[in-house]
Design goal:
The protein has 241 residues and is mainly β. It has helices at 2-14, 111-115, 199-202, 220-229, and strands at 21-29, 32-33, 41-42, 48-64, 70-72, 77-81, 89-92, 98-107, 138-145, 155-161, 163-164, 167-168, 171-183, 190-196, 214-215, 233-239. It has one domain (2-239). The protein is built from four helices and 16 strands. Strands 3, 4, 5, 6, 8, 9, 10, 13 and 15 form a nine-stranded mixed sheet that branches.
């Protein structure tokens, strides 16, 4: 698996694959651009808060054609972080030539790699996204502060993980594209995505920081937050180049 990951990252860095697709991701909080530390936001419970850290894994990419045919792309794992502009630009090589109407991917790291323990590359534990051999990877992480929090220094600490039943937090996302995406030897299409961090707290399971300001272990609260943020992505535009 490590050799496979190395080959994937070499493809990305050299750009030698003929069919490529680029993803560009921006982060917002409700209708406001995300600004680490300085932005102030209010959730549906009326709690004001700021965000000091926002990162998550994306993996298991697929393209879906109009006839429903699903093309799984080669395995690749990306750690997206608000404080890294480069991490929000993802290049997917080896995309089969064709025309596609949907994009699918996983938020998180699949169970096989969780069972395998710490990895290298984007999955290296030095990025602070790996708990233990038993608990596996943190799929997504949001930290900040809120006056409503009862944690020390009014902290918010939402570390979402868990890959063993009944607490499984990997979530698949399937997005319909506003126009067909075309890949081929002479094309390099770009999909512009937006991720709304407010969805973590304003989804099907609303979160009040007075009652819950964070958790750092697998469990039902993490499962419900993952259900919420499964819907944080939207497609803003397609650029066929």
């Amino acid at each position: 698996m490590n050799r496979l990951l190395l080959l994937i990252f070499l493809f990305i860095s050299t750009g030698t694959a003929a069919q490529q697709m680029q993803l560009e991701i921006s982060h917002i909080v409700a209708s406001q651009p995300m600004q680490l530390r300085t932005g102030t936001y209010t959730n549906a419970a009326g709690d004001t808060f700021n965000i000091t850290l926002f990162k998550y894994y994306l993996s298991n990419f697929s393209l879906i054609a109009a006839n429903g045919r699903k093309i799984a792309l080669p395995p690749a794992y990306f750690l997206v972080s608000e404080d890294s502009v480069a991490s929000k630009k993802i290049l997917l090589p080896q995309c089969p030539e064709g025309e596609y109407t949907q994009l699918s991917f996983m938020i998180g790291v699949d169970s096989v790699l969780n069972f395998s323990g710490p990895q290298s590359g984007a999955l290296d534990p030095l990025y602070g996204m790996f708990w233990t051999w038993n608990s596996g990877y943190i799929m997504a992480k949001l930290e900040g502060t809120s006056p409503s929090s009862r944690l020390p220094n009014h902290m918010l600490q939402f570390h979402i993980g868990g890959y063993r039943a009944p607490h499984v937090t990997q979530r698949m996302v399937t997005l319909s594209l506003p126009s067909p995406l075309r890949t081929g030897p002479q094309s390099k299409p770009k999909v512009i995505l937006q991720a709304d961090a407010m969805s973590w707290f304003n989804g099907a399971t609303p979160v009040s920081f007075r009652q819950m300001a964070g958790f750092m272990t697998p469990g039902t609260p993490a499962d419900r937050i993952a259900d919420n943020y499964q819907h944080m992505f939207s497609v803003k535009n397609i650029v066929n180049q």
